[in-house]
């Protein structure tokens, strides 16, 4: 480890759907956080670690999209954002191509202006910029506050990854290696499996249903002497009508969700998976402290 070894905690913030989780996965080089185009995909703060043994270690804190809380789940998500910001040595503010700054971005900027740590503006989805739009967006945001740096990227297409990593290291202080060099995340395989199932449900279900679902693993166990993991999981929803939609005609939707999740979990575990899914109704679980705790959305 060199004398100039840099390290620190880097919070990733932005409004919903700007590509925060995709950005983090891009830097890590592996899928840890789930992704979709729908709001509330990320509900909990997710930690990942990027290490270069001679240069430094970046501990990313991917946070939920910043939005107003509409229920107790929303309040939990806001607390995850605030906790991530309070732990940060550096902040990445992720924004999209824009010719104006909306109310969501304005609220985030107002919060970031009061932070005592450097803020890097990451303009994501640069492949969507046309002509001088990138230059215009850069000027637009630069007028709002002073950024430590501005980096245009395409997280989905892995453009400007190395530049972003260089800028992050340049803005981190000298520090220790917080985690073993081989560490990618502190998330357990069980927790990642929960999120991968929820990701498939989010992608395949429409309208308001994804906002009202949670997933719990009832059993996750490797078969003795075999390279097969048996997983029993339950998708929780808030309404009987939603349960019917999640199951689908003759169980087609539930099977579709299960097939997609099984493939993703097999990629993660590098083992065959036997996944069984059930659906249960828990009305208004997003307003219940006990239910939120059961589904992992609690500080307790």
Characterise this structure:
With 300 residues, the chain is an alpha/beta fold. Helix content is 34%, strand content 22%. The protein has nine helices and nine strands. The strands form two sheets. It has a six-stranded mixed sheet, sandwiched between helices. Helix 4 (133-142) links the parallel strand 5 and strand 6. Helix 6 packs antiparallel against helix 8 (252-269). The longest helix is centred in the last third of the chain and has 18 residues, at 252-269. The radius of gyration is 20 Å and the shape is globular.
Characteristics:
six-stranded mixed beta sheet, globular, alpha/beta, three-stranded mixed beta sheet
- The Cα radius of gyration reads 20 Å
Distance between the ends: 37 Å
Helical residue percent band: 25-40%
Mean pLDDT: 88
Secondary-structure element string: EHEEHEHEHEHHEEHHEH
Task: Give me the secondary-structure category.
Answer: alpha/beta
Discrete helix count: 9
- Major sheet strand order: 2-3-1-4-5-6
Query: How much of the residues is beta strand, in percent?
Result: 15-25%
General shape: globular
The total of beta strands comes to 9
Low-confidence stretches: none
Biggest sheet record: 6 strands, mixed
List the helices and strands and how they pair.
Layout lengths: L5 E8 L6 H9 L17 E7 L3 E7 L9 H16 L2 E6 L7 H10 L6 E5 L9 H10 L6 E4 L8 H10 L18 H16 L9 E9 L5 E10 L2 H8 L4 H18 L2 E10 L7 H6 L6
Helix pairs in contact: 6-8
């Amino acid at each position: 480890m060199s004398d100039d070894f840099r390290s620190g905690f880097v919070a990733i913030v932005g409004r919903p759907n700007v590509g925060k989780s995709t950005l983090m996965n891009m830097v890590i080089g592996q899928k840890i956080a789930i992704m979709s185009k729908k709001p509330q995909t990320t509900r909990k703060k997710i930690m990942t670690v990027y290490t270069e043994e001679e240069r430094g270690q970046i501990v990313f804190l991917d946070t939920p999209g910043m939005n107003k809380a509409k229920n107790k789940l929303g309040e939990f998500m806001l607390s995850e954002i605030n906790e991530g910001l309070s732990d940060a040595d550096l902040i990445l503010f992720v924004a999209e191509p824009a010719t104006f700054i909306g109310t969501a971005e304005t609220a985030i900027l107002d919060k970031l202006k009061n932070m005592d740590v450097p803020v890097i503006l990451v303009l994501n989805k640069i492949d969507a910029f046309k002509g001088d739009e990138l230059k215009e967006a850069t000027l637009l945001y630069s007028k709002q506050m002073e950024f430590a740096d501005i980096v245009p990227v395409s997280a989905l297409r892995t453009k400007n990854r190395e530049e972003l990593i260089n800028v992050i290291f340049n803005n981190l202080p000298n520090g220790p290696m917080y985690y073993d060099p081989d560490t990618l995340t502190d998330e357990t395989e069980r927790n990642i499996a929960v999120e991968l199932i929820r990701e498939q449900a989010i992608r395949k279900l429409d309208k308001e249903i994804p906002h009202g679902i949670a997933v719990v693993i009832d059993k996750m166990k490797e078969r003795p002497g075999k390279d097969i993991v048996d997983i029993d999981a339950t998708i929780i929803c808030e309404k009987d009508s939603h349960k019917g939609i999640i199951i689908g005609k003759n169980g087609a939707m539930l099977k579709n969700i299960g097939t997609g999740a099984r493939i993703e979990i097999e990629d993660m575990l590098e083992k065959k998976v036997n996944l069984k899914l059930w659906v249960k109704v828990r009305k208004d679980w997003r307003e219940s402290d006990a239910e939120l705790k059961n589904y992992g959305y609690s500080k307790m």
